[in-house]
Every structure is written in structure tokens, then in C-alpha cells.
Amino acid sequence: MALGGLVLLFSCSTEDDSTDGEAQEAALTSEQAQLNAQAEAATDQAYNLIELAYSAQEENTARASSIFSNCAVITVDFDGQTTAITIDFGDGCQLNNGHVVSGLILLNYGPIVDGTRTINYQFQNFVHNNKGIAGGGTILRVHSNGNGNPQSTLNKNLVVSFPSGVTADVTGTRVAEWVEGFASGTWQDNVFLISGNRNIDFSNGYIHQVEVLDALRREASCDHFVSGTLEVTRNLGSGQIDFGSGDCDNIAILTIGDQTYTIVLD
């Protein structure tokens, strides 16, 4: 389900006589949008694992077909008031969706209060498809929102490490509504709608503000978001990444001003 990297194929500009300076500025923005999408993808996949582990334990969604393969060791401890879940992927574990992870995800939470539960989560030495994720935060879990669906509102304070050595400090809010596949017995029909906003501070000197304009649709059967739009703002400039209208493909469109770029999600 990961977006993976974005590779710029070509650009289509309404201004054929763009200056070299404009082209360089656009390319630089495209490069930063690429890193932003990679950070978005890595954290989204990690949160999906939290969602599935918690729901299997607490919401009667025991699954004949689990995303967790045998190399993932899940330990649950309950002391009468607090539940602690440890998901241990060891030094390397290939999940049933093909993604390779390592390290630990730790969860702990108390009882349900007024129909909601607060979950604390922490990543320890966690790596998802060669991207490290460190830090943690809290999740406000609602078993049934206004649409009758499970929903998680997550506050995050994470550091994503790329193989290149660049790091990204990610802070903000992610809201995930589980719209299809809940309690079906398999992870493969799950569909989530993702919204929210975050700040991403890259170690190479760029700071992004990211907002979901149209909810990102995550289908478990596809490695990429199949629809939805992100707005990425840096300084006084902004661009939008459009993931399409529902087809499972590896193409997205980045728009910066009056220029558009076709990008590949690998």
C-alpha cells in the first residue's frame, strides 16, 4: 500500500517560454513534493498496522486473513486497567502485503470513556521499506462515528529517515475513517479515507505545510492512494498532488501554479 518514491517523468507547461530560473524553481519544488509524498506514505502505512492490530484485539475483527505474517510477534498484556500491545517485527519481516518492516510498535490504552478510547503509540527502531520512523503520539479512537464507521484521530510527532540521509520531522493530525471492510475477516478489502494536516520540516532546510483538500482514498488492494488531493505549501509557493479518480495506478499529477507534472509512484 505504500506510495513509495515519486519520480518526475516530464512536465507540461502552459508557458513554453519559461525561463531557466522558473524551471529550476519548479524542479526544486517538485523534488520537495517528492520527499513529502514519501514521508506521507511511510507514516500512513505504519499507522495502518496500528489500526489493524488494535481492531483485531478490541473490536472483534479477528481475521482469517491477516496482514501480519508469522514473523510478526504480537504480545498483549492486560493488568486489569491498562492494555499494552507490542508488535515485534524483529530484524526484518515481510508482511502479507509484501512490505518489509523491522523493529517495534508499542501501544497502550485504558478503558473506553464516553464511546472513545485514547491510545498511546510509540515506534522503536522501526523501519518500513527502508525508511526509518521514530517517535509517537496519541490516537483518539471512535468505534462508530456519525457515519457509523470506526474512526481514528491521530496526533503525531515523528521523525522519518530516508536512505539518502535526509530526515523529516512530521507533526500534525491524521483522521482515518474506515469506510469499507471492517470486520469482514480479511485485510484485503479494507478502505480508508484519510484527511488532516501536518507540518514537515526537512533536514535539508525546507519546511512544508500539508493539507488534505479531498480525502485520500486508501484501498488495501492497491499499493497507492487511488484518489484524493494534497496541497503542499512552502514559503509563499504551493502545489497540489492529485492521486486520480479511483483507478489503481502509479500515476499522480503535481500542479504548481500554471505548470503540471506527471509523476510516477513506485
Fold and architecture overview:
The protein is built from 1 helix and 15 strands; from the N terminus they run βαββββββββββββββ. It has a 15-stranded antiparallel sheet that branches. The chain has one domain (16-222). The chain is globular and about 60 Å long. It is 15% helix and 52% strand. A hairpin with a 2-residue loop joins β14 and β15. It is mainly beta. The longest helix is centred in the first third of the chain and has 39 residues, at 20-58.
Brief overview, please?
The protein is mainly beta and 266 residues long.
What best-fitting shape do the alpha-carbon axes yield? globular
From N to C, what is the helix and strand string? EHEEEEEEEEEEEEEE
The total strand number stands at: 15
Structural class: mainly beta
**Ends: how far apart?**
11 Å
Radius of gyration: 19 Å
Q: Helical residue percent?
A: 10-25%
Strand content: over 45%
Number of domains: 1
Number of helices: 1
**Largest sheet, if any?**
15 strands, antiparallel
Average pLDDT taken over every residue = 84
List low-pLDDT spans. 1-28
